[in-house]
Amino acid sequence: MAEEANQPNASEIQPDVQAPSSTSTTALDELRTRRKDYLKYQSETQAAALEGRASFLADVVTWEDPVALSDGVGLTYRVYAKSHEVSQAVKALRENGSSDDVTRLGVTGSFIYIHGGGWRVGNLDSEDLTCRRLCHTLNLVVFSINYRKVPEHPYPIPITDAKAGVLAVNERYISTLSSLPVIICGSSSGGHLAGLITQAAVEGSLDIRLDRTALRGPVTVHPDHVPIRFKKSYNSYDTNDSRGEFQGMASNMRNGVFGMASIPQDIIETGQAFPLWGVFKGHPQTYIEVSEDDVLLDDGLCYAKALEEAGVEVKVKIRKGDHTWWLKKYDTDEGAMVEEDFVREVGLLMSTQLEELSI
């Protein structure tokens, strides 16, 4: 995939997989600078898309609700509705409004989205355009979940935060929309969180109904702690480290991402830490997309194999290029094409009548 001349290099737009390297500042200071640069870049590319090829998405209505965490810290999640009329019907659910008022407006489901960023960067704004496209095209009510970031908030805080956000949207909205399907989705490290939340829901430790799962370039395992049955097929950290745009991503993941996550060694080979160590029987139908040059390619492929072996219906799509590159190129034709295709795959996952939605 050709880069546009005015775009920054891979290290500037992919800080989630870059290990801090400066000798003049601490690793945390460098990471904080990269967070600001990353969010600035994401904001600019999405704003450019909304002013141009994706201007139709500007009409999507959004608002944020609080999540009260057990330690007294407050986060928010963001809700997306296709129109003002839909937003009013959805907001009314918080005050015992009728789900019939939502469904009569053609809403097709509840969609929980968890952004990526190596558990270290990203927020509700960084993948906003993806949520807008899903909401607008499929008339989904989308709930974008936030979580505190490592290393300031190490394991298991990102996981417990994400679970708290999911439970909050379920209590306020989703549980009332009982006739509509519920889909959970995550990109990269958000895919890791979505995978763990799906497992918790299946096992009954998290009280929420999940009917479908969609994962985009997910992290499912630590590359040095792969289950024995997958070790022979888990090779992409070696084969893809020098391929694609993001050179040296394997070492950056080990040293930068996993190093800062601070996952305890005594649970690193359990389903508490990584989805690939979990139990797969009873999982909902799942869609997984991975990239052929990504070091995380086999994270997704091995996870799909584990689901298939447990009798779960799985669809896998292998895209060209490197790790979730389309999320950093919202303002390009190539990025828009991938996003449009992803929305179509979500529609298929829901068994929606796509021809009626003009996708």
Can you lay out the helices and strands and say which pair or pack?
Blueprint: H1 10-13, H2 27-51, E1 61-68, E2 74-81, H3 84-91, H4 99-103, E3 109-114, H5 128-138, E4 140-145, H6 157-172, E5 182-187, H7 189-203, E6 212-216, H8 236-239, H9 249-261, E7 285-291, H10 297-309, E8 314-319, H11 333-349, H12 354-357
Parallel strand pairs: 3-4, 3-5, 5-6, 6-7, 7-8
Antiparallel strand pairs: 1-2, 2-4
Helix pairs in contact: 5-11
Descriptive labels:
359 residues, alpha/beta, Rossmann fold, eight-stranded mixed β-sheet, 12 helices, 8 strands, 38% helix, globular, disordered C terminus, GDXG_lipolytic_enzyme
Task: Give your account of this protein's structure.
- It is a single chain.
- The protein is an alpha/beta fold and about 350 residues long.
- It has one domain: 3-Layer(aba) Sandwich (Rossmann fold), CATH 3.40.50.
- It has twelve helices and eight strands.
- An eight-stranded mixed beta sheet has the order 1-2-4-3-5-6-7-8, sandwiched between helices.
- The two termini are about 25 Å apart.
Summarize the structure.
38% of the residues lie in helices and 14% in strands.
N- to C-terminal distance: 24 Å
User: What coarse outline follows from CA principal-axis ratios?
Assistant: globular
CATH domain fold name: Rossmann fold
CATH class: Alpha Beta
Return the string of H and E elements.
HHEEHHEHEHEHEHHEHEHH
Q: What portion of residues is helical?
A: 25-40%
Q: Write out the strand line-up for the largest beta sheet, numbering strands in chain order.
A: 1-2-4-3-5-6-7-8
Give the name of the CATH superfamily.
Alpha/Beta hydrolase fold, catalytic domain
**CATH architectural name:** 3-Layer(aba) Sandwich
What is the beta-strand fraction?
A: 5-15%
The number of distinct structural domains comes to 1
Number of E-type strands: 8
Radius of gyration: 19 Å
User: What's the rounded overall pLDDT mean?
Assistant: 90
Count of runs of 4 or more consecutive helical residues: 12
Largest sheet: 8 strands, mixed
Structural class: alpha/beta
What are the segments in which pLDDT stays under 50 over at least 5 consecutive residues? 1-15, 352-359
